Structures are given as structure tokens and as C-alpha cells.
What we know:
Elements: E1 6-8, E2 15-18, H1 24-35, E3 38-44, H2 50-61, E4 65-70, E5 73-79, E6 91-92, H3 97-107, E7 114-117, H4 128-136, E8 140-142, E9 151-154, E10 163-165, H5 171-181, E11 187-191, H6 199-206, E12 212-214, E13 217-221, E14 230-232, H7 237-249, E15 254-261, H8 268-275, E16 279-288, E17 291-299, H9 320-328, E18 333-336, H10 349-359, E19 363-367, E20 370-374, E21 381-384, H11 389-398, E22 406-409, H12 421-428, E23 432-433
Parallel strand pairs: 2-15, 3-14, 6-7, 10-11, 21-22
Antiparallel strand pairs: 1-22, 1-23, 3-5, 4-5, 7-9, 8-9, 11-13, 12-13, 15-17, 16-17, 18-20, 19-20
Helix pairs in contact: 1-2, 1-6, 3-5, 4-5, 7-9, 7-11, 9-10, 9-11
The structure holds shikimate-3-phosphate.
Amino acid sequence: MTSLEFKVTPGGCLKGNIRVPGDKSVSHRSIMLGSIAEGVTEVSGFLEGEDSLATLNAFRAMGVKIEGPDRGRVVIHGVGMHGLKAPAGALDLGNSGTSMRLLAGLLSGQSFDLKMIGDESLSRRPMRRVTVPLAEMGAVVHTTEQGTPPLMLKGGQKLKGIDYTMPVASAQVKSCLLLAGLYAGGRTCVTEPAPTRDHTERMLMAFGYPVQREGNQICVSGGGRLTACRIDIPADISSAAFFMVGAAIAPGSDITLQHVGINPTRIGIITILRLMGADITLLNERLAGGEPVADIRVRASALRGIEIPVDQVPLAIDEFPALFIAAACAQGRTVLHGAEELRVKESDRIQSMADGLKVLGIQAEPLPDGMIVTGGVLGGGTVESLGDHRIAMSFAMAGLRSRGDIRIRDCANVNTSFPGFVELSRHTGLKIEI
Ligand code: S3P
């Protein structure tokens, strides 16, 4: 693995008016649905990060003509529901769990066999959460004995709709099953224990595919078709989150993040930071391509520790590394429970954040399903990102409040979700170098 280290020198604040890259979840889905739609789908604001490019390359390998990306513009020549072709080799999805889990669903009803592989981190991530319900639908999908990648899909299976209650609140599992449901006989219904991001449902409807939602159950019927459309992808709130936390903790900060997606299933970061006392204003709220967006202004303020409401956990699932930095700079204790899912992300995010915070002199007590962080004075030191993009960017923002230099190791994977992070954060005032 490439060894790339960030060094952040203490102090400074965040100022300016910036647009962070496109939403990763929406970018993946635009390629997937655009590819199996009829007609030409035009996408703007596409995230040119390694994860969404892994999805794009997978569909190219299955015979879909895709132009771009060129400054966020992608043109997808859809092949229709049954137009995908067998790729020449295994699909390499790199670091991207979303690609692998959603594709497992979309591709398990195809006529050809397929193998999906990933990098070291993805090769450790649990896949039974999708392969078990897919098998119930009639798919033939194999993992390793540990339930991890590679995934082997046997083509030519006849899928049938199922009624599935998810044991974990996971948008990836929900999306996987809904995408398989497009190819299944009858109705596929997924019940979620708590609301999770609903970009798949919204985008299916934007492509003219009916989706029914009744309470916490979402259903699709197989055998329909998707019609190409235009998709304007908003800036990713999960990338904006680093700047929101940075501005909240660094005295003198005043930053505006433009055109950020504020889908209600993604705004846990705003709710939680506000509960901690952050000064956040939403400006110009509007709709863009079926998703609500706004400009988000954040000014520095004194933060206080809180008990994070458990219902906010799925709505902020990718933002906890950044939120732990906010907690380290807050007055008092912040307590998180109900977030065991953090242990199976790109790294074990409870352990990696607790270890790094301790190196910086902060009391951080990992719990099986969360963490207790006691706010204090951040010192300097060398922390490990473990190749996890969000750990790396979170510790970078900690430099705004640390007493000494922070070195962060193994940062190459920042490019999976946030190409240009170093330049953009330096431009707004973070003292970061590679
Ligand atoms: C995602 C869903 C979340 C999130 C991931 C992207 C998606 O995972 O952590 O970064 O695009 O559906 P889970 O749904 O497994 O929690």
C-alpha cells in the first residue's frame, strides 16, 4: 500500500465559501441505474473518487458505454435491464463496500457468472448480511468461509421476491435487495429497523420505477424498466462534515459549504453538532434532482459534551470519526451507544479513533457499541488512519485545536471519497502538508 502521510501544524481557522466533491452514495447509484436504464443518462456533480470510479469501471467492464468523468459530468448510454455483458475478468471494487454490496444485488439476477474482489480492507468486511437474504431470493452467491469477499455469483438464476426484515439498519443491505428485486418475480419488500439513507428509492423513482413505502417497509415489484434521466448530484454531506467540525472547533472560523445534500436520512451530523452547541445555519434550501440541498454556514462556538440520541446513529453513520474530534474539543463527556456498525466500516472506527485520540492525550473509552470521549486539550503525536479515509480526514481537522503537530499515517485512501481534500482544506486555512 502507498505510504502517504499528512502533517498538520497547530492552529488556524476555517474561512471561505467552498463546494466539496459530489455525494458518494448518489454517485454510485447514478452509474448503476443509468447503466440498466433505457436511453442516455446525463450526470453532473459526479464524485471522481476511487470508490465511485470503481463502480463506473465495473459497468464499463460489463459493456456499458460511459463518457467522462469530465469535471463531474458523466454520460451513461444505458443498455436496459438485460443488456449487461459478462466482464472479461473479476470486478475489482477496491475499497468500496457500497459497490460490492449493491452490485451483489443488481448482478445476482444476470445470466452470467461473476466474481467480485476488493482490497485488503474490503476483503475483511462482512458480506453475509447481503448473501443470506439474496440466497433466500434464489440467488447463488458464495463468499469465503468467514463470509468475506471475494463474492462469486452464479448466473442464470430465477429470483423471487421476498419479505425481509433487516437485523441491522443498513442502506447497503436495503439497496442490494431492492436492486435484486428489480429482477425478481413478484414483490420484494424490505423492512428497516430505523430509517437509513433512501437514495436508491429516490433515484429509482427519478428513473420512473415505482417504489412503495409504507411506514418502515419499502417494496418494489420485478419486471419493470428504467427510463434515462438527468441527475444533479449534490455535494456530499459526509465530506462537508470534516469542514463543519473543523469550523465548529476552531475559534474565528466562518465557512460556507455550497450545494450540500441535506436529505433527511443524512443530516444526523447537523442535528448532533447543534445539540453540542454548534452554530450552523442552512441557507438557500432547495431541491436538486429529487434531493434537498442547502448551503451550510458554520461559525465557531463553544461545544459541550452530550449523550448522542440513538435514533441519530444511522443518520450520521459515516460522520462519527469527525464527531469524535468535536467531542474531544467539547466541554465534558460525549457518550455514544448503538453504533456497533462502526466496527465493520473501512476500519474498526471505534478502535481506530479511540487509539488516535489517546495518542493525542484525550480520554477515549471504546465500548462494544460506541465510545465515551471526555473533552480536553489535544496534544500532538503520530496517529494511524489504518487506511481509512474518514479517520485520516478527521484527525487532520484536529490540528486546528492541537498543541503540537499531528502526523497521520497511511492517508492514500482519502482519494476514495475526497480527491483534493488537502488542497481544499489548506485553501480554507488548515495548515496541512503531505
Ligand atoms: C452507504 C451506506 C452506509 C454508509 C456507506 C454508504 C450507501 O453503509 O456507511 O458509506 O451508499 O448505501 P450501511 O448502510 O451498511 O450502514
